[in-house]
Queue: 4 jobs
Job 1
Amino acid sequence: MSATTPSHPAPVDRAELLADPYSVYARLREAGPVHRITGTDGLPAWLVTRYDDVRQGLADPRLSLDKRNATPGGYHGFALPPALDANLLNMDPPDHTRIRRLVSKAFTPRRVELLREPVRRIAGTLLDALAPLGRADLISAYAAPLPIIVICDLLGVAPGDRQDFRSWTDALVAPDPDRPEQAREAVRSLLGFFTGLLAAKRAAPADDLLSALIAVRDEEDRLTEDELMSLAFLVLVAGYENTVHLIGNATLALLGHPDQLAALRADPGRLGPAVEELARYDGPVPLAVRRFPVEDVTIGGVDVPAGETVLLSLAAAHRDPRRFADPDRLDLGRDAGGHLALGHGIHYCLGAPLARMETEVALSALLDRFPGLALDLPPDGPRRRPSMRSRGLLSLPVRY
């Protein structure tokens, strides 16, 4: 994509942004707090790069997530059918408040803590399978299946459906630019999957989150059918997608910084705070969900008209030296409180306690099992997803 400040052109190469986003964002951040850009869809947007402005923007009620507030002819985004599009990422209060309240009890820190032992058992089983091999791709063999199993168990998705779900999600979130039909096929498959899943749960309710949400829909009439399906879709996708990349990026960062890894091994009790720094250092979401001002606003001293697309760069904010000292350095002793990897304000990640706990358990189990764990990368380095929406690894070869 290409970017400009309001008065000075500053071209940005998409390949460069994918290969080295932090250098690109640093250049933009120091050139100015807000940039007029042309996105990959060819439409204009405003990119916000400095921590204070990004944090304020995440909590600003004037910046709407509802696409109906977009300027006509402006942002159109990826087309989802109504049955998948009526989700929290497209909603403002009061609908956002109503729906979030219905599902939030499943993700409280107390409820999530009850899942710690089951997650630890899942991690142990996956590592048992890896132990005799000596080498593995940690994404496909560990970082991806762990959160899939956890979120599918929580929702009540049968084991046989998990692999298909992963391939559909990958095609939707990071479509192959040479095969645009993949994303459309994934949407059709996901719609059919959730239609069948809801029907099966209605016929035979179980002790799972999806059955509970169906009861809210059918018995209490507090969800429309589209809202129910969209909520199931969002919980399943978000519960898997971001956690995979958080675990993968964190593992790569640790193995690439032997001094920090050694300090963590010497004091495993630091792992909880370390996860916060790892999320700041190389989080799974470079850009927050797009927003649309419901009135003219001023961000970082720049006037942004109502209805135009605003992109809040979490990746740029996390490396802002105005907020984090020496921000390009991984420092597990740092107080990374205030990072925005899981959002801020009313749209703060619903599954944040679960993502934190899963990452902590995954890293702890991995490091305990394989004291000699080391990267086994090809000469050209790790392979990353070619995606602007998520920062994740396609593979992470290791030896142990």
Note: The chain has 17 helices and twelve strands.
Job 2
Amino acid sequence: MFFFRMIFRSFSRQFKRRLLIAVTVCLSATVSVAMLGVVFDVGDKLNAELSTYGSNITVQPKADAVVNDLYNTGGDANSNASGTSESDPTTFLKESDAPKIKTIFWAFNITNFAPELNIHADVNCASESVDSSSCKASGVPIVGTWFAKTLHMDSGESTVAGMNDMRSWWKLDGSWPKDDSAQGLIGTTLASKLGVTKGDTVTLYKTTVDGSRNKQRITITGIYDSGDSDNNAMYIPSSTAQVLANLPDSIDKIEVKALTTPDNDLARKASKNPNALTQDEWETWYCTAYPSSIAYQIEEVIPGSVAKQVRQVAALQGDVLQKTQAVMVLMTVLSLVAAAIAVANLMAASIGERGSELALLKAIGATDGAVSRLMLAETAVISLVGAIVGALLGSGVAQIVGHVVFGSGITMRPMVFVLVFVLLTLTVLIASFSSIRSILGLKPAEVLHGR
């Protein structure tokens, strides 16, 4: 009973100091759980955030890809016919093969894709409200694509693919066209040049390979501002562009938006030559959502294609992810260091104030080990309470960070809590070590006589 009364009186006198230890550990746990929670989930969040600014994989006919590599032309997934050349493509992929992208191993990581047929046509305005004398343009870039096309897969699942989501950063005055219709979007530069507004009708003229002259009336449903040279183009449904150019089931590019894992040494090695990988490396690479492995699998299902990652987007994702994770890990480390210093100082002060009590315990027979275990037990209980409260607060802070920065919540993985509790345990033990050593130097006779 005497032992328990000593503990009770000690807790009463040392309440403020113990409270400070609990608060210190709580704050450290809050920062650690919040930062590590974001670190473990930030990869997908950043990929989702950056993918809103365009595709990160582009698929082309193999012949076009070879020419691009030889002459360093094209290759940007966000460019179209308005970006580089006024010539029409001469090699094509089949539009009917595009849905096969959703059948690869990483199909669920493919968040969107859109095929394109990039051609050029002459434009005349057909609306009476427009001055026909100035409403003419030759060699206008026309992009035939999907806008929000519903695909019914062989697995029984359905998915929606198209430009509506691929160009989410566009400023659109009007509405998106419907697929398989005679509707279209026009860029601000071209609209200004032609004097066209939404609701007007324009007529496209196209001379095909066989020499025939085709025409197609297009109703403008909206005017978009992309912020780049794309503003000089017109987007229409792919089926309409194929009829205009007499190129049935033909496309010359597919833009793919995928959630990917940033490249590392293995991914870079595989992107140069997958055949150079060992069997174990191959399995690891193929079963990891690297841009290069997703691109490789797309090539497997689309005949005659070459799929490449957009290097600028991939590099940006990797750099931003590494820097973000480094900052958050640094904040976690600093919070743990601060907690260790604070706990060590508070314990040292507590032992100094309780020297007579500890000396008395040693005088009545308590060993150095027993007294040390008593102090560690008290600190452990206080730290555990602080850690539990801090873990709850840290989870809340992580959600706030997720919603403010990424617009969605953070998935808190159990590993985060396990890791934080292990780190805090080590921190408290290290902080307690120097303080516990002073107990070994206590001499009951000297302390109790006030020496």
Note: Confidence is low (pLDDT under 50) at residues 74-84.
Job 3
Amino acid sequence: MADGDERVGAFWRELGLPGLIDVHTHFMPERVMAKVWAYFDSAGPLVGRAWPITYRFEEDERLDVLRGFGVRAFTSMVYPHKPGMAQWLNGWAADFASRTPGCLRTATFFPEDGAAEYVHAELADGARVFKAHVQVGGYDPGDALLDPVWGALAEAGVPVVIHCGSGPAPGKHTGPEPIARLLARHPRLRLIIAHMGMPEYADFLDLAQRFPGVYLDTTMSFTDFAERIAPFPRAERGRLMDLGERVLFGSDFPNIPYGYAHALEVLAGLELGEDWLRAVCYGNAARLFGV
């Protein structure tokens, strides 16, 4: 366990909340998670720095820890890095959600032949959130193979948590410009910008102000670990209030190099008020996902 874990419950109880909703948590097939952890351990080029995994437990124990924190709903963010992976990951994620109370059924996709068909199938079967990882996948979100995928997701109104900012290391297609082009084509998309678009915070806040379906998750943002390399600009804090209904709490559990409480306490440290905290840590996601 980590320093401060005992403070998590007190955090949301003092706000008068029934618990927390965490829109950015990772549960994956065992061998995939092992490879992800090995990549973090090696400080690979997409990570670029030492990154110890705080909650490196077996799946059942990780679930117990998350529920012990009072997390009422969470995701199982899976993502492919090559063709032919997405459907297999989706099958695993569907089974995981079916046997895991509180898990919002999660799915993913990759620019490949058949993507539109399997995304339609996932939507029909009850997927509630999708994950796209532009950095790891190394693909342009505007790839023609994805156009019918985005169209289906926009029509269904199902959110997509998308890692598209250039942190912790830039990719060929990361940054706000590809997302701006995507939203110009599909303005009704519900995109949840992972990590608040770190480090291009201001640009992604601009997109959220332009497009009502754009949300931002707080994953790793404002933490000591992130602030050392990508500090959130103090001048933009007012816009966090302006967009308060579209900011969602995310943690990156279990793949975080600090305790879970820190991710919450830094939000309180922004001094944006208890109403803002209640919305970010529970209310906004509850409304978005119908929890």
Note: The beta strands are 20-22, 71-75, 103-104, 106-108, 129-133, 160-163, 191-193, 214-217, 247-248.
Job 4
Amino acid sequence: MSRLTHVTSGPYAPPAAARELTVRSADGAPLHVEVHGPDDAPAVVLAHGWTCSTAFWAAQIRELALDHRVVAYDQRGHGRTPASPACSTDALADDLEAVLTATLAPGEQAVIAGHSMGGMTVMAAAARPAFRAHTAAVLLCSTGSSRLVAESTVLPIRPGRTRTRLTGMVLGSRAPLGPVTPPARRILKYATMGPASAPHMVEACAHIVHACPRAVRHAWSHVLDALELDHHLAELRVPVEIVAGTADRLTPPVHARALAAALPDCLGVTELPGIGHMTPVEAPGLVTGKIRALAAAHIHSVPAVEESA
């Protein structure tokens, strides 16, 4: 029964970074950051979701790093970033600003892709100066701005206060997830992935999610339960594309449609039949292609790389 934090072979095994660094957020919290690909290439920044890590983006990193500079970082308490008592959407926005400032040159813009809580990070940072200075376009994958627990269909019962209360208890549970076992894989697949997800996809996601410390999982569940970012959407003024799975039980497509209606410059919503919440893993080629197309369309120049003396 493995306690690996990610798979070590196959398309979802994380590639080695060209370099790693520690970035300090506004409150001094250290963030683990990886940079992949050539320094003089168009930049992409990847923000993962709740209970995940940079390993979640392995398929995107491997393909995009051939001709893009890819920056991926671990959210607070996830992956190799230590836990912090500050768990809030403001902290998420602070962290994204810090990563952008530390990894992009002055005037340089990137495409930012956020999955789930990573998409919420983007929304929270929408009005921040560093975000506006460094963001050319955004891809939002499987995310929402509010009513996450009320709209979740993880529990197959009628919508209403009872389902909302029970869903909050399930998602906010302090119970340890334990090792990755066949029953654990089945539970994770049901809750987070589409019914046709291949076993190697489920395996990759299970190791990543089970590696998240339960205290971190619990702390951030409260932030998601109380999430209210609707008023931030008008500030997200860059071109935004949205991807959602029709079988997503955590952030059903109702969220994607609400985002599209509220965003000032939404390029469209792609709903993927039968795909669940883990869109970058379940539909890796499509998500990678969306990021690549956004970079080609909206990053117009790359600052020259200064040679060291």
Note: The beta strands are 19-24, 30-36, 43-47, 69-73, 110-115, 135-141, 240-245, 266-272.
